[in-house]
Every structure is written in structure tokens, then in C-alpha cells.
Amino acid sequence: MAKEDNHEAQRCECEDHEESSPLLQVNESNICSKGDTTKTAEEYGWTADGLPVSQGSVIGEPIGRNQWSSGLFSCLGRNDEFCSSDLEVCLLGSVAPCVLYGSNAERLGSAPATFSNHCLTYLGLYFVGNSLFGWNCLAPWFSYSSRSAIRRRFNLEGSFEAMNRSCGCCGSCIEDEMQREHMETTCDFVTHVLCHTCALCQEGREIRRKVLHPGFNAQSTVVVLPPSEQTMGRK
């Protein structure tokens, strides 16, 4: 009996020691902190991935589109630090749209001869359209893709999305993002056909505000000259 009583006393002491162990206290504090975190997550409406809904960073949540810096019919641009560039864009769009389109493509792409390839192709379509049909009807089929590229690159609001936001009558026919992009591309094409010069000018104003000309990205070249010929003098 005495041995059994001693064994029971030692076991009780071990249990008391385990309950008073600092490691267990730390684990209990961690469990309590995790419970508080769960409560905070429920309070702020966090998702299962651990991202708060209120911050708008949840994967799959739609991101708001940016607005164009100027309207489609803002021919003279805006009264800001780019006003002289806006006047240049307006002049080029009225007199030489092929040059304006080539300049826009040059700022978007980094391939060599981008300006000449786009400018000459546009110029050929311009002359063929005016010769056969009496107006520039062929070049918009070639140039509307630049508007789609600018819209995607800078996350700009498209014409279809703007129409849906204003009247709300077009959103019911769109089921996914792919269909919405198809509708936006179609609207880009219609904009270039009906308001071709205004569309080129709006794209020129937008891209000049956000992309530097490739010539400004060129690195300076350091020329190292060889030392001049040295001769040893005789005494």
C-alpha cells in the first residue's frame, strides 16, 4: 500500500509539473491568440485564403478600370504640361495620320523599324481606300488593334463598359470576361471606322502621357580615346 501511495503521489506531482510547464503555457497562449485571430477574421470578413475582402485584393474580384486622360472628341487635349504635345497630336492626326499611327506604334512596341513598318502600311491602305472608295475605309481595319493594345496595357475603360455603366442595358448579355473582351474589341473597331482621326488622337494623347519616346531611353555612349604617342627625349 505504501508503494502504491508513493506511486500515486509521484504521478500527481508529474501532472502538476506538466500543467505548470512554460511550454504548455506558450501553447495555450498561441491557441488563444489563434482564437482571437479567427474572431477578427470573422469580424472583418476575411476569405479562406487569408485575404481581407475590404482591401479589394481578393483573387477573382474585379479590378476597377482607369479612365482615359482625355475624351474622344477632346481634339485640342487638356490644359496641362502636355498641352504642346496635344497640339502636335491634333496637327498630325489632321494632316498626316500615318505618322501619328506610326509614332503610337513605336511607343508601344520595342521592335526595330516599328515606326516605318506601321507608317508605310497605313499609308498604302490610306491611298488605296481613297482611290477606290473615296475615303479612308481600309486603314481602320489595320489600326484598330493599337487601341485594344493601349486599353489592355493601361487597364483603361472600354467603350462597351462605359456604355454599360451609363445605361446598364448591355451587361445582361455578357457571361464571362472573354465575351466582354470580344465586345470591347468590336467597339474599338467601330470607333476607328466611325471616328478614326479622333480615335488616333485620343490614343496619341494617352500614350504620350504614360510612355516615353524610345529615343529618351537610349544610354549615353562613352568614347575612350587611346593615349597620344609619347617620345623619349635625348639629353
TrEMBL record:
InterPro entries: PLAC_motif_containing. Pfam families: PLAC8 (PF04749). This is Cell number regulator 8.
